[in-house]
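To whoever is covering the structure queue this week,

Two jobs came back overnight. Logging them here so there's a record in the thread.

Job A:
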Amino acid sequence: MSLFWRDVKLGLQSSGGALLGVLFFLAVIAVVPFAIGPDLNLLARIGPAMLWIGALLASLLGLDRLFQLERDDGSLDILMMQETPLVLTVFIKCFAHWFATGLPLVIAAPLLGLFMNMDLTAIGAVTLTLLVGTPAITFIGSVGAAVAVSLPRGGLLVSVLVLPLTIPVLIFGVSAAYAAVTEPDPFLPPFLILCAISLFFAVIGPVASAAALRASTD
């Protein structure tokens, strides 16, 4: 719990935290009407996809600093030498990072959905899918952050490594959101697949990240 609240506090206070992510999310959604035009029906149709794309890109901000602070001040070695398994430590750090940077995006999604002229059902579906899907992005990103932790400027590398792996999360998140507002399409199958993806990476991500961190210190 001490590590969790420490990382949450650092995530909220440091640059690239919750405020920057929400502002980036807002910027992405705000420019869409200027590019598409004043067609409200078209904005409502593409709204779920644009919200997911904006949240995905905003979630990538700050991933490179997931382990970088501990690497810089030497506390990463202390965390690795503790009796607590490194996998559990990585899991707590990932959850704290999502709590500080991913959860504000989920909270901001309903307001930004109004900008896209989305109805309440679509806004609720997008918010629910973001709540379930964004943790998967964080756990995937932890692997890239662990691989690039020894590099002085690994932010771009983390984004390049993580973005292709997040495509399944984007696909099923958008599919579930559209299924909620499209009558013949069932909402539950893509939503359950999205839940399964998040649970899968919640297990695999910390294990792979811990292995990458150990390899970086050898």
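Job B:
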Amino acid sequence: MAIHVKMEISQTFPVLESPRLILRQITLEDCKDLQHYMTDPLVKSHTSFEPQTMLFPARLFRYFTECYETLRDLHFAIELKQTSQVIGVCSLQYWDRVKGKARLGYLLSPPCWRQGYATEAARALIQFGFESLELGRIEARCSRDNPASERVLQKCGMAYVKAVPTGFRMRDDDTLKLYAIRRGEIAD
């Protein structure tokens, strides 16, 4: 079944809907806003995007396009239904079809924080991962100094697993909190 899903996604990128959001393929036009959000110091301090990836919207778009072509990462634009404004990205990264797992990631424009959008987008992507991609486990990582992101993961039914090294130096601490959820554990 995973091969069939891969073929479908490579032909038509999925569009996911939640009560207030549409999650869809990222366009070049979206990358202008996304680059602005991703380089905001409040956002940048909690992400691991390579700085050169975010220099120009076209370079960011090329990164997302390469991810779509290889299907290693599935990055979705988070669009508000009411205004059609793209407010961030939600992703399933490091998609391993053999092991049936992926890593959840998300980022939002700071004015959209604390409104439940990250939780809503993450829940939609977790459901998609389990139901459509047939994943058995989804993981996520957050920095120790990002309690808002940790609350998103908890609201999605994810459980703390352990501290893990970042693989790069982030601020004063080089560990992240690892959370995970298995199929069948989705929170309502």
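Note for Job B: Strands lie at 16-17, 21-25, 74-80, 86-96, 101-108, 137-143, 159-170, 173-182.

Please reply-all if you pick these up so we don't duplicate work.
Q.
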